[in-house]
Design goal:
It contains one helix and no strands. The protein has about 40 residues and is mainly α. The radius of gyration is 17 Å and the shape is rod-shaped. The chain starts with a helix and ends with a helix.
Length: about 40
């Protein structure tokens, strides 16, 4: 039982980290788009 809980927790942490990375990428893309719009 304990092992299973740890596995779930690790998957949860990984998912959270990926979410954070995804958000950062998303924000960067918005900033890049704004710059392109301003330059164009």
């Amino acid at each position: 039982m304990e092992e299973r809980r740890e596995e779930i927790y690790n998957n949860y942490k990984e998912t959270k980290q990926e979410e954070k990375n995804g958000e950062l990428k998303f924000t960067t893309n918005i900033e890049a788009m704004k710059q392109i719009m301003e330059e164009g």
